[in-house]
Amino acid sequence: MKFTPRLPDENVNVSRTHPLAELAWLLGGLLLLCLLVFGGLGLAVDLTVDHLPTRVENWLGDYARRQFPARESAPLQRRLDALTAVLPPGSPLRDRIFRVRLSSDPRVNAVALPGNTIVIFSGLLDAVTSENELSMVLAHELGHFAHRDHLRQLGRGLVITAVAALLFGERSGVTELASDLFLTWQASYSRRQEAAADAYALELLVARYGQAAGATDLFARLAAKKGRRPSRLLASHPYPEKRIELLRQLIEQRGFPIAERTPLGDDLRRLSAEEAGKGE
Amino acid sequence: MVEFFLQSPDLVIFLVLLALGYAAGSLAEKRHYKSIEKRERELVRLAVVTAEGSFPPGRVRQAFLVSGSTVVSIDYFKRLLAILRNIFGGRVKAYESLVDRARREAILRMKAEAQQRGAGMILNLRLETATIGRNANRKNQVGSVEAIAYGTAIVFNK
Q1: Residue B45 and residue B140: Cα distance in Å, rounded?
Q2: What is the DSSP letter of A260?
Q3: Coiled-coil ranges per the record (chain A) (predicted)?
Q4: In this structure, are residues A145 and A91 in contact, taking their beta carbons and an 8 Å threshold?
Q5: Alpha-carbon span B40 to A9, nearest angstrom
Q6: A11: exposed, middle or buried (Cβ count in 10 Å: 0-12, 13-18, 19+)
Q7: Tens digits of per-residue pLDDT, B37-80?
Q8: DSSP for B5-54?
Q9: For residue B41, which residues of chain A lie inside 8 Å, CB to CB?
């Protein structure tokens, strides 16, 4: 057999698809998959949350508490106890014991964690100027407990992280990115849930003080200085102007009186100053 | 939007690496293929076969081993494509060109060595590939592919 040197006409060993086209297809498929999983499991979470046993919630709470290092605080606990004392007689929250903890975090925020725990960030403590405002925030978080929003959010975030861990492996950069991104997005409640918690909080505020002063103060102040420093409370809770408007409408509709605000107690002022000193 | 990116440096780093991987990777691949094709044309007259040969007595003056090896790195963009491909299955097209380049480069180097030493033919070509580098067996790391080509070079009597 004679050997004839010749170059092959074309290379069959390499696919001709453009890499960017392939990326688009794969990302599209992944996105669709995520939407299906997210939608489906999200729905499942919504359905199970209402029947989640307290034992499971407490276990989740232990896990969540580790993510938010915070300490107990007697002055804050007194404010919360005063609020839970005026819960309506039929409320399911009456059977539970709520704890409030203080986190040395300069952001203006508060979170409701599973296991009946509310975490107040020291930035928020610094931002409030009256007892009524603080009570409004605490009551708002109680509203999330009443509607079990805290579990819904945690559920979705966990679902996404679990799916990413399955797809990419537990210690993968993609998983960390996914959990970070989705947990951040998920940490914000939907506008509907926020409005419901606001309405709940307003009722409780009126039950506690007999009037509605201070209900909108904090949001108004944060909205006013929004341009200077983006606050987390606003970033995760969209449209503060709309929330203020909604609350004002509610106050008007139900004819709640508005009287003097109760100034911040000395114990809280000391606590706030202590935290500020720590931060420096 | 800008705020969102500023708040997630991980995402920014990821996107920058991705763009860098795509740009640098594509450029390197284009230039490599150009050089491969040029050298293949130059060396096309040196026969390489996978068969074991036998020649009439007195025809072969010298026979020796020639080899060529090359290591090509995976870029960040190709790695992402491969990760996504792992989910859906199918041909990992991103790696096909990589392995193709490594094999052809290895054969070319082997041929270059044979030509340098005056061989007229290479018999019994063998090809091996392997993953290589510090991160070859570690997850989440960019690895490299190694290809080695070896065969028996024959120097004929004139």
Answers
A1: 43
A2: P
A3: none
A4: no
A5: 13
A6: middle
A7: 999 999 999 999 998 878 888 899 999 999 999 999 888 888 88
A8: HHH-HHHHHHHHHHHHHHHHHHHHHHHHHHHHHHHHHHTTTSEE-SSPP-
A9: 7
Q: Which of A33, A172, A177 is facing B14, going by the closest CB pair?
A: A177
- SS3 state of residue A18: coil
Q: What are phi and psi of B128, to 5 degrees?
A: -130, 150
Contacts for A102 with CB less than 8 Å, ≥ 6 apart:
A70, A71, A72, A73, A76, A119, A120, A122, A125, A271, A275
Helix H or strand E encompassing B148: strand B144-156
Cβ within 8 Å, pair A6-B44: yes
Do B128 and B148 form a contact (C-beta atoms < 8 A)? Answer: yes
Set of chain A residues whose Cβ sits within 8 Å of the Cβ of B91: 15
Q: What is the pLDDT of residues A237-264, one digit of tens each?
A: 556 777 888 888 888 888 888 888 888 8
Tell me how far apart the alpha carbons of residues A231 and A225 are, in angstroms, rounded to a whole number: 9
- Among B residues 22-61, those touching chain A with beta carbons less than 8 Å apart: 22, 26, 40-41, 44-47, 49
Hey, is A79 helix, strand or coil?
Answer: helix
pTM of the model: 0.54
Dist CA A264 CA A126 (whole Å): 11
A contacts of B83 (beta carbons < 8 Å): 168, 174
Give the residues across from B116 on adjacent strands. none
**Residue A50 CB neighbour total at 10 angstroms:** 10
CA A130, A133, A139, A140: dihedral to nearest 10 degrees?
-160
Q: Is the torsion defined by CA of A24, A26, A32, A35 positive or negative?
A: negative
Structure tokens at A9: 């006409």
Count of Cβ atoms closer than 10 Å to residue A4 Cβ: 6
Q: Which residue of B has its CA nearest to A230?
A: B3
Report residue A271 CA to chain centroid gap: 24
How is chain A split into domains, by residue range? 23-277
